[in-house]
Structure formats: structure tokens, C-alpha cells
């Protein structure tokens, strides 16, 4: 019995170590997702604003018209991106809240069912029946809803999704990206503004494409080149349309 107790304690220690490592990986994954979203928000700001200001430049409009078009594109695009991100994350947050409420009700009203669910959960993870039962009993007896949510759904009560934070990050990332073509097309004098703006945008798109590909663990050079081509096509098409209209 003493040896079995020691083995059970060691198993719990190993389990805790594994959970701590998993928690670190999840936190790291969340940070990478936020960083990836910010990079893509800035990338969208660069491409969409560059296409609009290049169209206005192709129409040979005044510097004031260029500035107004660029600022309008930047603000409307940022609001659109931020609003879309808010709606998306809010839906995920609502789902998390629904899961939390369901599990809290089950733990309060049906402890036997909660125990069976956690017991099967640990058995499915490969734990011995005795250890699985001991851990499930400890969690249910202590009303440890946090562990239930973390183990079964990878939800942390202190780290639920924040739609306002996500929306704000996307909004400001878009604005930062949009500032590059806007400042280039308005501050650089003729006849260099179009060429310099296109060159600056292409260089930055290589950087955002490369970073996004690295974060997504796909071939970085291919992703960067693809991003540059999309940006170039956007600017060329915008300039041609502006030239035809103007």
C-alpha cells in the first residue's frame, strides 16, 4: 500500500508538471495568435490604403484629395476590421460563457455526473483507473470548476477572450499599416511619389508576409513573395483605374 501511495503521488507530480507545460504552451499559442492577427491587420492596412491612394494619384488629383482619400480609407478600414474582430471574438466569448455556465450547473446539481465525466476524461488520457478516480474525486469534492474547464475545454476563467482587446489591437494595427502609403503618397514630391510609395509598400509587404508565414509555420519566402505580388497588383490596378477615370 505504501508503494502504491508513493506511485500515486509521483503520478500526480508528473501530471502537474505536464499541466504546467501545457498551460505554458497554450499561453504561448494565444500570444502568437494575437501577434499573427496584428501582423495581418497591419498588412491589410498597407494593401487596402495603398490601392486607394494609388487610384487617386493615378487620377492626378490634388495633394488635399490624396490626403482626404487616404485618411478616409484608413479610418473606415480600421473601423471595419475592428468591428469584424469584435463580432468574431464576441461570438467565441459567448460560447465560452455558455460552457462555463453549463459546467457550473452540472457541478452544483449533479456531482455524480461531473465525477463520471472527469473520471472518463482522465481514463481517456491514459491514467490508471485508481489515479483517475482520485483526481476526479478531488476536483469534484473541491468544486474545482477552473480545473474542469481547463482540462476538458482548454478554457481559463482568468483568461477568457476579450472582444474589446482584440478589436482594439486590430483597429490600431490597421492604422499603423495604413500610415505607410498615406504618408509616402502625400509627403513625397512629384514625380517620385508614386514610385517611392510602391517601393516602400512592397518592402513592407515582404516583411509582413514573411513574419506572418513564420508565425503560421509555412514557407516564409513563398508567403512573402505572394504578399508582395498581391500588393503590387492592388496598386497597379488602382493606378490604372484612377488614370482611366482621371
TrEMBL record:
Transmembrane segments: 34-57, 63-83, 164-188, 194-213, 225-245
Domain of life of the source: Bacteria
Keywords: Membrane, Transmembrane, Transmembrane helix
Entry membrane topology: Multi-pass membrane protein
Name of the featured protein: Vacuolar iron transporter-like protein
Compartments where located: Endomembrane system
Listed Pfam families: VIT1 (PF01988)
One GO CC term, this protein: endomembrane system
InterPro entries: Ccc1_fam
Predominant location: membrane
CDD domains: Nodulin-21_like_1
Record GO terms (molecular function): manganese ion transmembrane transporter activity
Biological process, per Gene Ontology: intracellular manganese ion homeostasis
Amino acid at each position: 500500500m505504501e508503494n502504491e501511495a508513493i506511485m500515486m503521488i509521483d503520478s500526480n507530480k508528473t501530471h502537474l508538471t505536464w499541466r504546467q507545460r501545457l498551460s505554458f504552451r497554450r499561453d504561448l499559442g494565444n500570444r502568437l495568435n494575437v501577434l499573427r492577427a496584428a501582423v495581418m491587420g497591419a498588412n491589410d492596412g498597407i494593401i487596402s490604403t495603398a490601392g486607394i491612394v494609388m487610384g487617386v494619384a493615378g487620377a492626378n488629383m490634388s495633394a488635399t484629395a490624396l490626403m482626404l482619400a487616404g485618411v478616409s480609407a484608413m479610418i473606415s478600414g480600421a473601423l471595419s476590421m475592428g468591428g469584424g474582430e469584435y463580432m468574431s471574438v464576441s461570438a467565441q466569448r459567448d460560447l465560452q460563457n455558455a460552457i462555463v455556465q453549463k459546467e457550473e450547473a452540472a457541478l452544483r446539481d449533479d456531482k455524480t455526473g461531473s465525477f463520471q465525466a472527469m473520471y472518463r476524461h482522465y481514463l481517456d488520457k491514459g491514467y490508471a483507473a485508481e489515479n483517475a478516480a482520485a483526481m476526479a474525486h478531488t476536483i469534484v469534492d473541491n468544486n474545482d470548476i477552473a480545473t474542469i474547464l481547463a482540462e476538458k475545454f482548454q478554457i481559463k476563467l482568468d483568461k477568457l477572450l476579450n472582444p474589446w482587446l482584440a478589436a482594439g489591437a486590430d483597429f490600431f494595427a490597421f492604422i499603423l499599416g495604413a500610415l505607410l502609403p498615406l504618408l509616402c503618397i502625400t509627403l513625397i514630391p512629384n514625380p517620385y511619389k508614386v514610385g517611392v510609395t510602391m517601393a516602400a509598400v512592397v518592402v513592407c509587404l515582404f516583411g509582413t508576409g514573411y513574419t506572418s508565414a513564420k508565425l503560421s509555420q509555412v514557407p516564409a519566402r513563398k508567403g512573402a513573395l505572394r504578399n508582395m505580388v498581391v500588393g503590387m497588383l492592388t496598386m497597379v490596378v488602382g493606378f490604372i483605374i484612377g488614370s482611366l477615370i482621371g
